[in-house]
Amino acid sequence: MDTNDQSYELAFQVIVHAGESRTLSYQAMNEAEAYRFEEAHSLLEQANKEFLECHTIQTDMLTKEANGRKTELNIILIHAQDHLTMATMAMDTAKRWIKLQKKLKALEEAE
Question: What is the pTM of this model?
């Protein structure tokens, strides 16, 4: 496999794992909205595992670049980075959403 093919392969792996992470984060928010917090936390843990898969790929690419092994920039790689960013944002949002839903539930129970 040539360097360009490897770059595409790694980019697609990031897209798949980041996309799964984002989906799991949104599912966690849905569970939290229904006050199913154990399920929400479990989904968020799964989201984090998927995120770590693509973060590991990215870190490896950055390390290789820092050691002089250049990666050819292509639109698929840029797209992969977008997915990674969105996965990060989705997980952060889900964490905050779960906290808010817990507060809302506590307020409802206090009435």
Answer: 0.90
